[in-house]
Specification:
Elements lengths: L8 H6 L6 H12 L3 H14 L4 H13 L3 H14 L4 H11 L4 H13 L7 H21 L4 H13 L6 E9 L4 E8 L5 E2 L11 E2 L10 E5 L6 E11 L8 E11 L5 E9 L5 E8 L1
Antiparallel strand pairs: 1-5, 1-7, 2-3, 2-6, 4-5, 6-9, 7-8
Helix pairs in contact: 2-3, 3-4, 4-5, 5-6, 6-7, 7-8, 8-9
Length: 286
C-alpha cells in the first residue's frame, strides 16, 4: 500500500486522471529508491486511468522492460496482442519481452510479423523485424549452440534468405505510438548531422528510412565507421494530435560490427514528452 504522506501532492492530484506523466514520474522515483513493487503499482495507474488504450499499455510495458522486468511486461504485451492483432508492433513487442525466457515463442512471434499481410504504413517495420529475427537467432547460437531449437532456427533464417549486412554501425529507432513522426539524428565524429534533410553524410553514414507514420522505424548505418564519437538523438517531430498524452516512448537498438562474429547489440530507451523535444539517446565511440 502507498500512503498519502509518502507521495508528492501532484501525484495524489493526478489519481484517476488520463495523463501518464505524474504516474510515470512517481514510478521512476520509487524505482530509483529500490522500491520495485511500489514502482510497478504506480506505473500500473497509467493503464488503470486509460483502460483499453494501447499507447498507455505500451508505455508501461516499455518502461518495465527498461527496468529489466520483462516477465512483468510480457503480460501487458500479450494483452495488447490479443486486442490489436492487426499491428505487427504487437507481435514484435511480445517477442522482445519473451526472447530470453521463451525463445520458441519469440521465434513464432517474429515469424508472424514476417508472414503477415499488414497495412502499408507498417511495411518498413516488417523489414526491420526480419533483421531482428536474424539477430535473435544469432544470439541463441551464442548461448545455446547445441540446442535443437537453435539448429532449427539457423536453418530457418537461411531458408528465408535473411542476412544482416556487414556494417560497423547500425542503429534502429522505433516507438510505442502509432501515427507519430520521430526523427533519428546521428552526428558523425566530424560534426556532420545525418537526418531526413541530409540523409547521406561525407563520412559514409546514411539514413536508410524516414518514416512519418506507424511505429517507425528509422535506421542509420555506417559501413566503415570513423574513429571518434557518434552522437545519437531523437527529435519528436509531431503526432496525429488525437492522443490522450503527447508523450511517446522510444526504443533505440545499436548494433556494432553487424554481421560478424564480434557483433554486439545494446538497447537504449527514453520518453519524449512533447513535440519538438530532442533527447540524446547514446554516445557511441569507435
Amino acid at each position: 500500500m502507498i500512503y498519502e504522506a509518502e507521495v508528492p501532492a501532484d501525484y495524489l492530484q493526478a489519481l484517476g486522471a488520463e495523463q501518464a506523466g505524474p504516474y510515470r514520474t512517481e514510478a521512476e522515483r520509487r524505482h530509483g529508491d529500490g522500491e520495485t513493487g511500489a514502482a510497478i503499482r504506480a506505473l500500473s495507474s497509467v493503464i488503470e486511468a486509460n483502460p483499453g488504450n494501447p499507447e498507455a499499455s505500451r508505455l508501461v510495458g516499455y518502461r518495465l522492460g527498461a527496468w529489466d522486468l520483462d516477465a512483468v511486461s510480457a503480460g501487458i504485451f500479450f494483452d495488447i496482442l490479443r486486442r490489436r492483432p492487426y499491428e505487427p508492433q504487437s507481435y514484435r513487442d511480445l517477442a522482445y519481452a519473451v526472447q530470453d525466457t521463451r525463445p520458441a515463442l519469440a521465434a513464432l512471434l517474429f515469424e508472424a510479423v514476417l508472414s503477415g499481410d499488414w497495412h502499408g504504413r507498417f511495411h518498413r517495420l516488417a523489414v526491420v523485424a526480419a533483421e531482428e529475427y536474424a539477430l535473435f537467432v544469432r544470439g541463441q547460437a551464442r548461448v545455446a549452440p547445441e540446442s535443437p531449437l537453435t539448429q532449427y532456427l539457423m536453418d530457418r533464417i537461411l531458408e528465408l534468405g535473411i542476412e544482416i549486412p556487414r556494417t560497423d554501425l547500425r542503429i534502429t529507432l522505433s516507438w510505442n505510438t502509432d501515427n507519430t513522426d520521430i526523427d533519428l539524428w546521428v552526428t558523425a565524429p566530424d560534426g556532420e548531422k545525418c537526418y531526413y534533410r541530409n540523409r547521406t553524410v561525407a563520412s559514409g553514414g546514411e539514413l536508410l528510412d524516414d518514416v512519418t507514420q506507424g511505429f517507425g522505424p528509422e535506421r542509420f548505418q555506417d559501413v566503415d565507421a570513423n574513429r571518434g564519437e557518434y552522437l545519437v538523438q531523437a527529435h519528436y517531430f509531431g503526432n496525429n494530435g488525437n492522443r490522450l498524452s503527447a508523450a511517446t516512448h522510444v526504443r533505440l537498438s545499436v548494433i556494432r560490427n553487424a554481421g560478424t562474429d564480434d557483433e554486439t547489440v545494446e538497447v537504449h530507451t527514453a520518453v519524449l514528452e512533447k513535440t519538438d523535444d530532442v533527447l540524446t539517446l547514446a554516445r557511441i565511440r569507435f
